């Protein structure tokens, strides 16, 4: 005889089976997701506002104005042209635009977009960059150029002629490709995806082959013969000779590894993706560190001549160090925690005492050899100071950089960082303004 409730046992067992099936399916889905998800690769960004112990001094709305002017004046369908020159009525010169698109400008802008979590704009930028700047083997062309019939023609995003692909006559560049790897590493850490994973690992494999078993030279330069070095301790203190009076003889073109090309954080990322690259990363760190010029001038040599097994401190006719080039090397060391403290002390001394940084400095005396200020040098200094946590140096560098922002409401470069030459011609460059964004925001 059936008992009351006996018919509930089969139903209860059925529900248990269903629950077990759902649980197993969920566990399987979770396992599949974990196995199929892109690998986790964190990427720290030294120098960003998020990693800084102190706040930026430029309000976000001012940063937005700088970027708006950058895009309005320089952005085309190909990317950012390298410079824009404002019309000058006194000289009767019209506004003009460069006919060059420099890969490093595009990459630094893409890096800034990723750093600021601007995914939508980054994706648009990335698609354009890959269209115009990647060679058939996936490396980066350093410069894209186009012959311009009308130098006064604008480069607005709506200009169909600006979307024509530039001439692809130059070879690709592993230093620019290395910077691209750094951009991809940051983008992947922010927004991991299978597509970005394939792009980053594919580029890493290509770079390992191109750079080779030892660090490959990236440039041929005619190395100047060294002018007699004057004793800076002599009395009276010797003054730098005019460049026109210096010997201009040089060796035949020699292969050189530019120290600024050795983006150490990118090389470290490459070594993490390809453990066989570890020795080359270590070699690169030693090479850059060994390029420190002197205690009196703790900046960095231009490069290392592989044929002569020695450093090339300068490549101009005059014995001067190029500040932005040198500070690029200093920034790369700072990003991996290896900056020589003497370099920062030198920067602090000159920013506090002189209030400015100049484009070139004499190697023997350590004094400026030009009256031209280095806007890129100020931006790089601010970025270095934020990495090292030196608030005073950061604020002074940003204050001086901000002094070069256009404030006239009638100016076509309003809000941009600009240069003014001796004739009164106003020029804004992509590099100055992108480095300013990286330093200020």
How is this structure best described in words?
The protein has 441 residues and is of the alpha+beta class. The protein has a domain at 43-206. It has helices at 8-36, 60-74, 103-115, 119-133, 174-190, 194-211, 264-273, 278-289, 323-335, 341-353, 375-388, 391-402, 430-440; strands at residues 83-85, 96-97, 100-102, 143-145, 219-224, 250-258, 303-305, 310-312, 320-322, 360-362, 419-420, 426-429. α3 runs parallel beside α5 (174-190). The longest helix has 29 residues, at 8-36.
State the shape. globular
Count the DSSP helices: 13
Task: Give the percentage of residues in beta strands.
Answer: 5-15%
Structural class: alpha+beta
Radius of gyration: 27 Å
Largest sheet: 4 strands, antiparallel
The strand count comes to 12
Q: Output the helix-strand order.
A: HHEEEHHEHHEEHHEEEHHEHHEEH
The end-to-end distance, rounded to whole angstroms, is 83 Å
Strand order of the largest sheet: 2-1-12-11
What is the helical fraction, as a range of percent?
40-55%
Low-confidence stretches: 1-5, 156-164, 231-235, 237-250
Would you tell me the overall average pLDDT?
87
How would you describe this structure in keywords?
globular; about 450 residues; disordered N terminus; about 10% strand; 13 helices; 4-stranded antiparallel β-sheet; alpha+beta
Concise synopsis of the structure shown:
Mean pLDDT is 87; it is low at 1-5, 156-164, 231-235 and 237-250.
Secondary structure blueprint with pairings:
Layout: H1 8-36, H2 60-74, E1 83-85, E2 96-97, E3 100-102, H3 103-115, H4 119-133, E4 143-145, H5 174-190, H6 194-211, E5 219-224, E6 250-258, H7 264-273, H8 278-289, E7 303-305, E8 310-312, E9 320-322, H9 323-335, H10 341-353, E10 360-362, H11 375-388, H12 391-402, E11 419-420, E12 426-429, H13 430-440
Antiparallel strand pairs: 1-2, 1-12, 3-4, 5-6, 6-7, 7-8, 9-10, 11-12
Helix pairs in contact: 2-13, 3-4, 3-5, 3-13, 5-6, 5-7, 7-8, 9-11, 10-12, 11-12, 11-13
């Amino acid at each position: 005889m059936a008992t009351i409730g006996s018919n509930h046992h089969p139903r209860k067992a059925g529900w248990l089976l269903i629950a077990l099936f759902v649980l197993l399916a969920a566990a399987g889905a979770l396992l599949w997701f974990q196995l199929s998800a892109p690998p986790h690769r964190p990427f720290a960004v030294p120098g960003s506002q998020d990693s800084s112990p102190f706040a930026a001094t430029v309000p976000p709305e001012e940063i937005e104005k700088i970027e708006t002017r950058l895009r309005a004046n320089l952005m085309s369908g190909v990317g950012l042209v390298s410079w824009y020159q404002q019309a000058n009525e006194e000289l009767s010169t019209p506004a003009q635009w460069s006919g060059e698109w420099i890969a490093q400008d595009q990459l630094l802008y893409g890096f800034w977009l990723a750093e600021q979590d601007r995914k939508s704009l980054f994706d648009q930028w990335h698609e354009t960059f890959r269209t115009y700047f990647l060679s058939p083997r996936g490396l980066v062309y350093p410069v894209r150029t186009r012959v311009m019939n009308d130098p006064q023609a604008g480069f607005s995003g709506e200009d169909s002629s600006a979307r024509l692909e530039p001439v692809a006559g130059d070879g690709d560049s592993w230093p620019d490709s290395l910077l691209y790897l750094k951009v991809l590493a940051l983008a992947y850490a922010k927004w991991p995806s299978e597509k970005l994973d394939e792009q980053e690992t594919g580029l890493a494999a290509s770079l390992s082959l191109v750079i080779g078993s030892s660090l490959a030279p990236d440039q041929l330069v005619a190395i100047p013969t060294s002018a007699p070095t004057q004793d800076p301790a002599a009395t009276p203190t010797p003054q730098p000779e005019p460049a026109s009076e210096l010997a201009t003889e040089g060796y035949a073109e020699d292969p050189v590894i530019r120290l600024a090309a050795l983006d150490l954080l990118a090389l470290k990322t490459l070594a993490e993706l390809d453990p066989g690259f570890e020795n080359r990363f270590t070699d690169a760190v030693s090479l850059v560190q060994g390029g420190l010029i002197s205690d009196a001038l703790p900046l960095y040599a231009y490069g290392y001549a592989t044929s002569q097994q020695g450093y090339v401190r300068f490549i101009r006719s005059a014995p001067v160090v190029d500040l932005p080039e040198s500070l690029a090397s200093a920034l790369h060391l700072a990003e991996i925690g290896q900056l020589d403290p003497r370099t920062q002390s030198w920067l602090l001394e000159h920013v506090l005492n002189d209030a400015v940084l100049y484009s070139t400095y004499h190697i023997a005396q350590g004094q400026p050899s030009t009256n031209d200020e280095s806007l890129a040098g100020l931006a790089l200094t601010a970025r270095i100071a934020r990495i090292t946590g030196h608030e005073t140096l950061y604020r002074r560098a940003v204050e001086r950089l901000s002094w070069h922002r256009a404030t006239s409401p009638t100016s076509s470069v309003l809000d941009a960082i600009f240069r003014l030459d001796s004739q009164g011609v106003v020029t804004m460059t992509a590099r100055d303004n992108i480095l300013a964004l990286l330093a200020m925001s």
